[in-house]
Specification:
Protein name: UPF0175 family protein
Oligomer: single chain
Distance between the termini: 49 Å
Order of helices and strands: HHHHH
Helix content: 55-70%
Largest sheet: none
Pfam families: UPF0175
């Protein structure tokens, strides 16, 4: 989807430090806002931004002070996965 918006020149000049960069910055802002509002998952954010790993996305979010959407249900799923891996012998216990 392509969207055209008008912004004041002073703001446009501040956002666009080099040619083509403004489009990327606007994409990043839209992805961040969608992620913060739980409209997209971290996997979709990673895909939209063109990152190949979760670590790249985590670093990107950290640089921009974006909190990860990680709640109690995520923790429970991770703990279940950990227990499964340990019981199968696929993960060494400390």
């Amino acid at each position: 989807m392509q969207i055209t918006i008008e912004i004041p020149d002073i703001l446009g000049n501040q956002l666009q430090t080099n040619p083509g960069n403004l489009e990327r910055k606007m994409l990043e802002l839209c992805v961040i806002e969608a992620y913060r509002n739980a409209l997209i998952s971290s996997g979709k954010a990673r895909e939209l931004l063109g990152f190949s790993t979760r670590l790249e996305l985590d670093a990107f979010f950290k640089q921009r002070a974006v909190d990860l959407n990680y709640d109690l249900s995520d923790l429970k799923k991770d703990l279940n996965t950990l227990e499964t891996l340990q019981s199968e012998g696929n993960l060494a216990t400390p």
